[in-house]
RNA sequence: GCAUCCAUAGCUCAGCUGGAUAGAGCAACGGUUUUCUAAACCGUAGGUCAUAGGUUCGAAUCCUAUUGGGUGUACCA
C-alpha cells in the first residue's frame, strides 16, 4: 500500500474515531505540499470540517495528531489555514525508490486486455504531406504508443484516400501536360511530382473559369462548365467502370505517391499495422443503409434518397444514400466502421482527424448507436486543431503550405548547425553525426507539435525557427545524454541495488516523488489521449533533474560510496523514464550530444 | 441564423476530479564554468486568468449571458 492510500484510509478511521462520522473516501482530498511549506503531502481539511463540526484549524490539528500517532511513516505535521501538511519520513521515500523505482519493470503497466484501434494519417494520394499532416501523424503515432504503454493492445491503421475526383485532377493534368514525366526523369519525389500536376490542374481550371466568365457565364456556371472539370468527372466515371487505360495510369501515379509517402513516413518514424484503401471500401455501407431502413432508423424520401432524422438529438437531417443509389462520404464510413470492427473486434476505436470534421463524426457515431451497434460506444474522434501560419490557413492550391519533407530537412539542418557550433561531437563518425542531427532536428519538431493539447490550434511561424532551449525536445534529449555521460564516467553499476542510510536532500525527495508518478502519468495521459500531458511531465522531470545536478557536488568525485551510488541510481532512473517516455512521443534520445 | 471549439505574462504554452500568494519556456535584464556536457543552472521584471453575473467555505477550473476568434452547417471528401 502506498502512503497516499494509507493516509486516506487512516483519515477515514480518524474521522470515525474522533467525530463518530463516516466520511466518504472521495471527500478525503490529498495534494502535493507546496514548496514553501514543510511536508510532502497535504490534506485539504475543508471537506472534513462538515463532519467534525469544528473549525478548519482545530480539525486539522486533531487529524494531524491522530495521523502521526497511527502512521509510522508520518513524523510531523503543521497546519496552515485549512491545510494539514504532513511530513513523511525519508526512510519511506528511500524505500519507495529502492523497492519500486529501481525495479527493472518500473514503468511497465500490465496488460489490461483491451484492444484499441488507432486510425491516423489517412492521406490523399494527390499531393505530398504538409505540416497539418505532420501533426496528425505524430499525434496518431504517439497516442497509439501511449495506449500500448498503458496496457492496451493496439492496432494502427491507415485509411488511404486513393480515389476520387481530386485524384483524377492530378492524373488528367499529367496526361495533358506531363510529357511522360516520371520521378526518375524529373528527379522529383513521387508524391511531389503528382502534387505538381494537381497544382497545374487548378491553374488551368481557373483560366478556363475566367474565360467562361468573360463570355458572360456566372462563376457558378463557369465552374461546372469548364471543359477540364468535365473531363476529370468523365475520368472518374471511367475509373469506376474499370477502364483499362485510366486504371493503369491511376496505379502508376498512385505508385509514385506511395513511394514518396514511404520515405516521408520513414523519416517521421511512423508505422501502421494495416492499410485500408478507399478504392476497396468506397462501395461499402449500402448494406448498412438497408439494415437501417429495415430497422426504421432511416427513411426514404419520394425521390429514393435515404435519410436519417437527427433533429431530436439537436442535429439535422442527414443524407445517407443519394437518390441514384450511390454513396456519400458517410455511407462509406458506416460500412468501413463495420468492416474494421469485423476485422479486429476491438473494444475502442480512435479516429485521429482534424476538428473540421467534428460534426461528421458526431453524426457517424450517433447513427451507429441508433443502428444498435454495441461497439459504437467505443468509437472516439480524436479531434485536433488546425496548424495555422502567421498569414492564416495553409492552402495547398495557393502554395502557402509548409511541406513535410522540406520542414523535416530544415529541422535536421538547423540541428546540424547548432550542434557543430557547440563542437561537442567532433569525434563522431559521419554516420553517427547524421544520425544525431536527425534525432535532434526531429526531436525538436515532434516535441514542438506534441506538447500542445491536441484540441488547441497551433501557430507555426516558419520565419521563427523552433527553439532548442527551454521547454523543447532537445532540452530533454540533452538531459538524457548528460546523464548517460555521467553514469559512464562514474562507473555506475546498477546491480548494486539500492543504497541505505542516506539523508535525502529536498530536491532528491522531490525527484523521487516526481519519478514515482510515471506509471500513473502514462495511464492518465492515455485516458485522455494526450501525448501533451506526457510531454509536459517529461519536461518537469528533466528540469528537476538539472536542478538536482547543479545543486549537488560533482557525483563522480563523491567519496561516500553509498551516497554516490544513490545519486547515480536517481540519475539512472531519470534517464530511463526520459528514454521510455520520449520513445512514446516518437522521439529518440541520444547517448551523447 | 444554428451547432461546436478556443480565449491565462509582450510571444508560445502548463495549470489534475473546484483548494493555499496562478506556473514554465522564449524574448528583456543581472549572475554562475580551475567541479560530472553552459542545448544547463540561479535571480530580477512581467497577470483585473476576455467581460459580467451565478453556485460554493473556496472558481483560471463548474453554470448562464456577452464579446472576440476558429471550424462546421453540400445528394464534396
From TrEMBL:
Chief location: cytoplasm
Domain (DALR anticodon binding) ranges: 476-593
InterPro entries: aa-tRNA-synth_I_CS, Arg-tRNA-ligase, Arg-tRNA-synth_N, Arg-tRNA-synth_N_sf, ArgRS_core, DALR_anticod-bd, Rossmann-like_a/b/a_fold, tRNAsynth_Ia_anticodon-bd
Residue span(s) of domain Arginyl tRNA synthetase N-terminal: 5-88
Pfam families found in the cross-reference section: DALR_1, tRNA-synt_1d
Cellular component terms per the entry's GO annotation: cytoplasm
Key words, A-Z: Aminoacyl-tRNA synthetase, ATP-binding, Cytoplasm, Ligase, Nucleotide-binding, Protein biosynthesis
Gene Ontology biological-process annotations: arginyl-tRNA aminoacylation
Placement of sequence motif 'HIGH' region: 123-133
EC number: 6.1.1.19
Top-level EC class as recorded in UniProt: ligase
Catalytic activities: tRNA(Arg) + L-arginine + ATP = L-arginyl-tRNA(Arg) + AMP + diphosphate
PROSITE patterns, alphabetized: AA_TRNA_LIGASE_I
Cell compartments where the protein resides: Cytoplasm
GO MF entries: arginine-tRNA ligase activity; ATP binding
Similarity comment: Belongs to the class-I aminoacyl-tRNA synthetase family.
Subunit-level organization: Monomer.
Identification of the protein by name: Arginine--tRNA ligase
Organism: Pedobacter steynii
Amino acid at each position: 500500500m502506498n502512503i497516499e492510500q494509507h493516509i486516506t484510509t487512516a483519515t477515514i478511521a480518524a474521522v470515525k474515531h474522533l467525530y463518530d462520522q463516516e466520511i466518504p473516501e472521495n471527500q478525503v482530498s490529498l495534494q502535493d505540499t507546496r514548496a514553501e511549506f514543510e511536508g510532502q503531502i497535504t490534506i485539504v481539511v475543508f471537506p472534513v470540517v462538515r463532519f467534525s463540526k469544528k473549525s478548519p484549524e482545530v480539525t486539522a490539528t486533531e487529524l494531524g495528531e491522530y495521523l502521526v500517532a497511527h502512521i509510522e511513516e508520518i513524523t510531523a505535521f503543521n497546519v496552515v489555514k485549512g491545510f494539514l501538511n504532513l511530513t513523511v519520513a525519508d526512510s519511506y521515500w528511500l524505500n519507495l525508490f529502492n523497492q519500486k523505482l529501481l525495479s527493472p519493470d518500473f514503468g511497465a503497466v500490465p496488460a489490461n486486455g483491451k484492444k484499441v484501434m488507432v486510425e491516423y494519417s489517412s492521406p490523399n494520394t494527390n499531393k505530398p504531406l504538409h505540416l497539418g499532416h505532420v501533426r496528425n501523424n505524430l499525434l496518431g503515432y504517439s497516442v497509439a504508443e501511449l495506449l500500448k504503454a498503458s496496457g492496451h493492445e493496439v492496432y494502427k491503421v491507415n485509411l488511404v484516400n486513393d480515389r476520387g475526383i481530386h485524384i483524377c485532377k492530378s492524373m488528367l493534368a499529367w496526361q495533358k501536360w506531363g510529357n511522360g514525366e516520371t520521378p526518375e526523369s524529373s528527379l522529383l519525389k513521387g508524391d511531389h511530382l503528382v502534387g505538381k500536376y494537381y497544382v497545374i490542374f487548378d491553374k488551368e481550371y481557373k483560366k478556363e473559369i475566367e474565360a467562361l466568365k468573360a463570355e458572360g457565364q456566372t462563376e457558378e456556371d463557369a465552374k461546372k462548365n469548364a471543359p477540364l472539370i468535365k473531363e476529370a468527372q468523365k475520368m472518374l466515371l471511367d475509373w469506376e467502370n474499370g477502364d483499362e487505360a485510366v486504371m493503369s495510369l491511376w496505379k502508376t501515379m498512385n505508385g509514385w505517391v506511395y513511394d514518396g509517402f514511404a520515405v516521408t513516413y520513414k523519416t517521421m518514424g511512423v508505422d501502421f499495422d494495416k492499410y485500408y484503401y478507399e478504392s476497396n471500401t468506397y462501395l461499402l455501407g449500402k448494406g448498412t443503409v438497408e439494415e437501417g431502413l429495415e430497422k426504421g432508423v432511416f427513411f426514404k424520401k419520394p425521390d429514393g434518397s435515404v435519410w436519417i432524422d437527427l433533429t431530436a438529438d439537436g442535429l439535422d437531417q442527414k443524407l445517407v444514400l443519394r437518390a441514384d443509389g450511390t454513396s456519400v462520404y458517410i455511407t462509406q464510413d458506416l460500412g468501413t466502421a463495420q468492416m474494421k470492427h469485423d476485422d479486429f473486434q476491438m473494444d475502442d476505436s480512435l479516429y485521429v482527424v482534424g476538428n473540421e470534421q467534428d460534426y461528421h463524426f458526431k453524426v457517424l457515431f450517433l447513427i451507429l448507436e441508433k443502428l444498435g451497434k454495441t461497439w459504437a460506444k467505443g468509437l472516439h474522434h480524436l479531434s485536433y486543431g488546425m496548424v495555422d501560419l502567421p498569414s492564416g490557413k495553409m492552402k495547398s492550391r495557393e502554395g502557402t503550405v509548409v511541406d513535410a519533407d522540406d520542414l523535416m530537412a530544415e529541422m535536421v539542418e538547423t540541428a546540424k548547425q547548432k550542434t557543430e557550433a557547440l563542437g561537442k561531437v567532433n569525434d563522431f563518425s559521419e554516420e553517427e553525426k547524421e544520425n544525431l542531427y536527425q534525432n535532434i532536428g526531429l526531436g525538436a519538431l515532434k516535441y514542438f507539435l506534441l506538447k500542445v493539447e491536441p484540441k488547441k490550434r497551433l501557430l507555426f511561424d516558419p520565419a521563427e525557427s523552433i527553439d532548442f532551449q527551454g521547454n523543447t525536445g532537445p532540452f530533454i534529449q540533452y538531459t538524457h545524454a548528460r546523464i548517460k555521460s555521467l553514469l559512464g564516467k562514474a562507473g555506475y553499476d546498477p546491480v548494486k541495488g539500492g543504497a541505505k542510510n542516506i539523508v535525502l536532500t529536498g530536491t532528491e525527495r522531490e525527484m523521487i516523488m516526481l519519478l514515482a508518478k510515471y506509471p500513473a502519468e502514462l495511464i492518465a495521459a492515455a485516458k485522455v489521449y494526450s501525448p501533451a500531458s506526457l510531454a509536459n511531465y517529461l519536461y518537469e522531470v528533466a528540469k528537476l533533474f538539472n536542478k538536482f545536478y547543479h545543486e549537488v557536488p560533482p557525483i563522480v568525485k563523491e567519496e561516500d560510496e553509498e551516497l554516490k551510488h544513490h545519486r547515480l541510481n536517481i540519475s539512472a532512473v531519470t534517464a530511463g523514464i526520459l528514454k521510455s517516455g520520449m520513445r512514446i512521443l516518437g522521439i529518440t534520445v541520444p547517448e551523447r550530444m
